[in-house]
Amino acid sequence: EADIYQTPRYLVIGTGKKITLECSQTMGHDKMYWYQQDPGMELHLIHYSYGVNSTEKGDLSSESTVSRIRTEHFPLTLESARPSHTSQYLCASSEFRTTNNEQFFGPGTRLTVL
Amino acid sequence: GENVEQHPSTLSVQEGDSAVIKCTYSDSASNYFPWYKQELGKGPQLIIDIRSNVGEKKDQRIAVTLNKTAKHFSLHITETQPEDSAVYFCAASRITGGGNKLTFGTGTQLKVEL
């Protein structure tokens, strides 16, 4: 069982609200990722980080932002949520070594914006 | 960038039969190909991976084959059991000194029927 946690697991909010999805890992991993998983199951990388104070945009454009102030914590923020943001958000982490490339995933946050 | 195609999108087999899922990738520089299993309500979990210097890898009932020339790789599950029912994702990545961004396939919903 991977030691990576996401809160909340489910979130239903109204349009225009600011939200932060939390992701924490206790494995000491330098690399962390955020994926968006649409109803058709496909996973899209929206943000990643290779260490503290390092953040990059992923392959899928997203209006969300991320921060990496501590190694174990990688929160994702939406300043003004819209119905188009409704999706499943998955956080993952991995070691920095090239000999072990496994990404460990959290259980996900299912976001619904009304 | 990398593009990964996965087929079929759904697969139904009888318990005890074999299941095969196929993926193709576009970037000849990709050198790491993991397979993830996602059960309902959970994040994806790595089940097997293969690097480009290997043509085949087995782990009990699961095997993965890689054809670098044709740029395709496949997951083989033998003696399927009901607990194999899940969504399976292939992925491709070019491992560099610091990076390991995964590009995922579109997923295969596997159903093992009794």
Low-pLDDT residue intervals, each spanning 5 or more residues of chain A: none
* Large-scale geometry of chain B: globular
Q: What percentage of the residues of chain A does DSSP assign to strands (E)? A: over 45%
How far is it from the N-terminal to the C-terminal residue of chain A, by CA?
A: 33 Å
Total DSSP helices of chain B: 0
Number of H/I helices of chain A: 0
Largest sheet of chain B: 6 strands, mixed
| Mean pLDDT reading of chain A | 92
Helix content of chain A: under 10%
Helix content of chain B: under 10%
Count the beta strands of chain A: 11
Radius of gyration of chain B, in Å, reads 14 Å
Shape of chain A: globular
Q: Largest chain-chain contact? A: A-B, 25 and 29 residues
Radius of gyration of chain A, CA atoms, in whole angstroms? 13 Å
SS strand fraction of chain B: over 45%
| N-to-C SSE string of chain B, H for helix and E for strand | EEEEEEEEEEE
Mean pLDDT of chain B: 94
Structural class of chain B: mainly beta
The total count of strands of chain B amounts to 11
